[in-house]
TrEMBL record:
One Pfam entry name: CHGN
Higher taxonomy: Eukaryota, Metazoa, Chordata, Craniata, Vertebrata
PANTHER family xref list: CHONDROITIN SULFATE SYNTHASE 2, CHONDROITIN SYNTHASE
One Gene Ontology molecular-function label: glucuronosyl-N-acetylgalactosaminyl-proteoglycan 4-beta-N-acetylgalactosaminyltransferase activity
Known EC number: 2.4.1.-
Predominant place of localization: Golgi
Name of this chain's protein: Hexosyltransferase
Gene: chpfa
Species per Swiss-Prot/TrEMBL record: Cottoperca gobio (Frogmouth)
Superkingdom of origin: Eukaryota
Family statement drawn from the similarity comment of this UniProt entry: Belongs to the chondroitin N-acetylgalactosaminyltransferase family.
């Protein structure tokens, strides 16, 4: 029993005892190793000196390795101070950064198109080619030997100055290598007597590998058949890869000197085959280059072959009319193909929606169009407009009802016609529907899907037996928003000089001092590239007394003062005598005194002009393209806006401080050349009615006669202090009405006016 008890105790205590023993053993081994290392080799009997800090001199950390050289270096070590020397930094290396990200990343465009034309055909077939493909492709360039004096509008033409065909082909390839080889992956050449289906040729290159040496077109045997290989016949166009052209580049001069040929396409084919060993192919990686030979005087609408329907290029085209007929045929073909794809996708969406959680309700109508906008509050609910075939009950001027006219009338008529077409398509041949009248019409603009319509139509229904009856049918239609496109705009710069024109009348004299103070701090002191010009407007009586009593004498004195203060600044002025201060009349005078390329900013003496707005004036005014009419921020009448309150030193853009004056058209930015061209177009109307110069302002003139983009937008940097405008009844009724409305709306906000009336009513009642 005792032995078994001893064994049980030993089993429980044994591991602990063994662990402690191993620990002591390892500790002793470690101490021996460290102590042994503290003695220098061959001097184990010497004492080990101890430093002031109590540490052993010459000792090293456990498990480290010591050598004789280390010990000797420690004995001979003498500390020394290394003086600090500032590192002389050289001029930082300027890093070149590309202008565009695509250039820095090496991203290239896919397709470049070169059209081979001539002096005799550029104004006929060349123009037809440009009109049919230029708006589908990014880059289209026309190559010709000799050129006419006048190049057709909208075409980029490169002329080599020679009519030799082989020489021109050599120059074409050389021009591509010099200017465009690093910008495009594929180069397509076609003659101007061939029609090209632009979308198909672009789709072809989108599926081709850019690193292939490819020479693609219609393969043709060489004349005589002596040379092996095939070249691409030029009539149907041919596709060259960038890789192939780069490989051909060192041998281009050899081709010009050594290869003789009568045809430019055959010369190019021989050059490519001789030096790159690449033959013309019509099929590559499963992609086919389809082409079709068009018969003489053939009608494209009567061609029914599948090869014609699949063609990328059609050749030969005899005249521009045939080119346009081909373009219409292929456009209708692609349009129908698109409609079929849309119908197929809609059917797939309907089939999938059946197994969805909500069933068919998960598929929005129309299928494939964004669902309607869902308002989050009562203020976001979209408003429906009510209309009939003659009237609309939502007018721009705030009237409850007005005549349906212009683009709105065309819109309603188009929607009714489409509704009738779709109804007959649905019920024919069982029923035939005829519109009798529109009972109710509603429309609203949904920002996420487009214009929505709801029509209540009274219809006459005729069955197959000839029986008819009148019914009322409600239909819903959606005119969806189309795909967003980026419209290219001409290049403009912020370095253009602006001529600021300030018209002044007798009533404006008191505001000149404040205007000059603000303008001097914003323009004169910052060396703004702008010239300030005052236009003094005299009536006939004031003009007769100008020598005795000049009403603008004080203003001219102020101008002289600022010219002395800023010696580099000149402030010119122009004097005009007129009974009716029409914008067009005095701009006629100003226009003649400035160069054609001058940029004008027509402003008001109450306008605060700064550099921020002037830059936007430069950017938004585009010569021969766009004029800019900004909406300034107009302060409210301070007596009403700050009634019984202290007036702030500066006015912020908040609803209680002012508003953007939509009735004002006084400020305008435009080029003198655009003004002169527009003014020329209205000469005939002015000869018939001279009063038109008084009834129109510059905004209406550009809107009716220019054909330019009239850009009108709110301008937060353009600020006007409150001032009452003296409306001239001699001007047109419309201009006078706008002036009166501007004065009324500039008094204060609705809440401020209501509060003022409320206080007056309370004062009267007490």
């Amino acid at each position: 029993m005792r032995f078994s008890a001893f064994i049980s105790v030993l089993r429980s205590v044994g591991p602990v005892v063994i662990g402690i023993s191993l620990g002591f053993t390892l500790s002793l081994l470690s101490v021996n190793w460290t102590e042994e290392a503290c003695y220098r080799e061959g001097k184990e009997g010497e004492d080990v000196t101890v430093g002031q800090d109590g540490q052993l001199k010459g000792a090293r950390k456990p498990n480290s390795i010591s050598t004789i050289n280390d010990v000797e270096s420690e004995e001979d070590f003498e500390p020394r101070i290394v003086p600090y020397k500032q590192v002389q930094q050289g001029a930082p290396k300027k890093v070149f950064r590309a202008k565009y990200i695509s250039t820095e990343l090496g991203i290239r465009e896919r397709l470049f198109v070169g059209v081979l034309t001539s002096k005799n055909t550029i104004n006929t077939l060349g123009v037809a080619v440009n009109r049919t493909i230029s708006h589908h492709l990014d880059s289209v360039l026309f190559f010709t030997g000799m050129r006419n004096r006048k190049v057709p509008h909208g075409m980029f033409v490169v002329s080599h100055g020679d009519e030799r065909l082989i020489w021109n082909m050599f120059q074409n390839i050389k021009y591509i290598l010099d200017h465009y080889i690093n910008e495009y992956d594929w180069f397509y050449f076609v003659q101007d007597d061939a029609y090209t289906e632009a979308d198909r040729i672009r789709a072809l290159v989108d599926h081709l590998s850019m690193d292939r040496e490819l020479y693609m077109g219609k393969p043709e045997e060489f004349i005589g058949g002596e040379m092996e290989g095939k070249y691409c016949y030029g009539g149907y166009g041919y596709l060259l890869s960038r890789t192939l052209l780069l490989r051909l580049q060192p041998y281009l001069e050899n081709c010009r000197n050594d290869i003789l040929s009568a045809r430019p396409d055959e010369w190019l084919g021989r050059c490519i085959i001789d030096y790159t060993h690449t033959n013309c192919v019509s099929e590559f990686q499963g992609l086919q280059y389809h082409y079709y030979e068009l018969g003489k005087n053939s009608d494209p609408s009567k061609e029914q072959s599948e090869q014609f329907k699949k063609a990328l290029t059609v050749h030969p085209v005899s005249d521009p009319e045939q080119m346009y007929r081909l373009h219409r045929y292929f456009t209708e073909l692609e349009l129908q193909k698109t409609y079929d794809e849309i119908a197929k996708l809609q059917a797939e969406i309907k089939n999938v929606s059946v197994v969805a959680f909500e069933g068919n309700r998960s598929a929005q109508w129309p299928v494939g169009i964004n669902p309607p906008f869902e308002p989050k509050s009562r203020f976001e609910v979209l408003k429906w407009e009510y209309f009939t075939e003659e009237e609309i009950y939502s007018c721009i001027d705030g009237s409850p009802k007005c005549e349906l006219q212009g683009i709105d009338r065309m819109d309603v008529a188009d929607v009714i016609d489409i509704a009738m077409v779709e109804l007959n398509k649905k019920y024919k041949p069982v029923l035939q529907l005829k519109k009798q009248q529109l009972i109710n019409g509603y429309r609203r603009f949904d920002p996420v899907r487009g214009m929505e319509y709801t029509l209540d139509l009274q219809l006459e229904v005729v069955n197959q037996k000839g029986h008819s009856r009148s019914i009322t049918k409600r239909v819903h239609l959606v005119r969806p928003l189309s795909r967003t496109e980026i419209i290219p705009m001409p290049y403009v710069t912020e370095a253009t000089r602006i001529h600021i024109i300030i018209p002044l009348t007798l009533q404006d004299r008191s505001f000149v001092d404040h205007f000059l103070q603000v303008f001097a701090s914003n323009a004169f002191e910052t060396s703004e590239n702008a010239i300030l010009t005052f236009l003094f407007i005299y009536d006939p009586v004031e003009a007769q007394q100008v020598n005795q009593n000049d009403i603008f004498a004080s203003v001219k004195t102020q101008i002289n003062t600022y010219e002395r203060k800023y010696p580099t600044i000149k402030i010119p002025w122009i004097s005009v005598k007129t009974e009716t201060p029409s914008q067009i009349k005095f701009m006629d005078i100003i226009s003649k005194k400035h160069p054609v390329d001058s940029l004008f900013f027509l402003a008001n003496v109450n306008t605060h002009v700064n550099s921020e707005f002037l830059n936007r004036c430069r950017m938004n005014s585009i010569n021969n393209w766009q004029v800019f009419f900004p909406l300034h921020f107009q302060d409210f009448n301070p007596d009403i806006a700050y009634h019984n309150q202290p007036r702030p030193a500066t006015v912020d853009l908040i609803k209680d401080a002012g508003h953007f004056d939509r009735r004002s058209f006084e400020e305008a930015c435009f080029y003198n050349s655009d003004y002169m061209a527009t003014r020329t177009r209205m000469v005939a109307d002015v000869q018939e009615n001279e009063e038109i110069l008084d009834t129109l302002d510059i905004f209406d003139m550009f809107l009716k006669y220019s054909g330019l983009h009239v850009f009108r937008a709110v301008e937060p940097a353009l600020h006007q202090q409150y001032s009452y405008q003296a409306c001239n009844p001699r001007l047109s009724e419309d201009i006078y009405h706008r002036c009166v409305q501007s004065n009324l709306e500039g008094l204060g906000s609705c809440s401020q006016l209501a509060m003022l009336l409320f206080e007056q009513e309370q004062g009267n009642s007490t």
